[in-house]
Amino acid sequence: MEILQEVNDGVTQLRLNGRLDAQHSAKLKMALQDESHRWITVDLADTTFIDSMGLATLVSTLKTARQRGGDLILMRPSTSVKTIFDLTAMDKVFRFAPNIFVATQMIDAVRHQKT
Amino acid sequence: MMNTLSSDNPNELKARIGEQQQQIAALEHDLEEMTASLMQAWDQLVPFLQENPAENEKNTDLVPLLETAMVAVEAPFGALYLAPLGERAATWFTLPGNVLGLAAVSSILETVMRDGSTISARDVALWNGRPSLWLFTPIKVGGVIVGAFGVGQDHPTHEFTSAQAKIIARMTERAAGRLEGVALAKSQAREQALSQELQIAGVIQRSIQPLSEPAVESLRVAADWRPAEDVGGDAWGWVKQGDDKIAFFMLDVAGKGLPAALAAVSLHTALKMALHLGMPPAKALAIVNEEVYDVYTAAGILATAIAFTIDLTDCTIQIANAGHTPVQIRVNGVWHQVNASVPPLGIFAQIDPIPHTTKVAKGDLMLVYSDGFSELETPNGLWGGQGIIDAIPPTFVDPYSVVGAILAAAELLMESTPLQHADDQTILCIAVQ
Questions:
Q1: Which has more pLDDT, A83 or A114?
Q2: Nearest by CB: A52 against B322, B371, B382
């Protein structure tokens, strides 16, 4: 799995290319270890597969972001990946956005609420 | 003794230069041989110096090597610096002890570590303030600079000769070799410990699986549990709720190794206990989730779980599913799917699973499985619930035949599709008769 990462206006934007599974989950954890990653968007457009360990890592990342006072928004999961979220009821855990503009707006809304 | 070059005849001068160059080459050759002999002697001597020769590769004590280097180059002082690595703090020692403070050479060591070059430093203040001359050489292990080896003279006006520098370089290589040996021994010990842990995890995981399916007159139950090579967190179980009800459960802790196996054991125990106390499936999952939430949050893990009861008097099934793969129920030959109503355990502090109730009759089937089956890869994507159902011939009513057909199809998939991700596979099939 390849992780593309950039930070814009305090929002860490990740794009996960490939499989987010037991083998590659640690890579995602490492990428977000730094305390500065509070507001996070994860683009799943090119994520081909997520297994239970991948889901656990996303949940852990969400919890950590919220503990840091931030939030995490998922974006553009493929149909097969979205099915995994739906079947496991994980669609109730995460918030999804269709693109980075909407994701940023969702994050801004939470930021304003907190300030 | 070296002759001086005082002739005015250019040819004679040239010839004498040539002679002296040959002498230097011969001396260097002799030095190489002496160094090699010294190394051989060292290798023979080391086992006798150590109390337990069998533990040589674990001995990190480089003091004898430093002493040998000092003797070889006639240097009264020696020093060894090892950079911090992981949890190990930086190491600094000198011979004689504390003759030179680390602060006095920190900038020199920084350069040696950064550039990987040998550095000769003058006017280095010893503990008593007197100036000294030092030669530091980087210790490289596997191409990485891990420290520096140094010798010191108390004649700051002298220089270390190239021959002495060569000896130090060879000794430094030896030190690196010993450190590499120690690192290898540690790595092997870690691998061995990990392998033992995985074996223990496997034993623990096996110990919680039921030894047999329940023997109930109106039901036939077939189950199969196959752990992945590297141990996951699948488990299943059943428990009677009085005379008229039987409860089943299946769980899958996300993760592998000892942590997943331990989490599976505690979750298995908690679920079994809750169901044994007669709790309905949804309440059992909710209560257990409350118990594990804090630990799972701290450890960054989650677990899918499904619990269901079958009322033996009227064949009513009540299912609660927390993030687990869907349950497939074949009623009158038509398959129905029951999805998770809440996310896996350990995500929310409180969950309220919506129980799904259905009635089954003779000839109906119920199929519960872990994602080790549904997430098998096929050329057209994941196998999924539909793939699993398609593997069952419509005429099959015997649960053992159903499980056998699914296992055979899964094995075929694993053989035909390279790079399948190995995961635990658990399947439970219940037929009403």
A1: A83
A2: B371
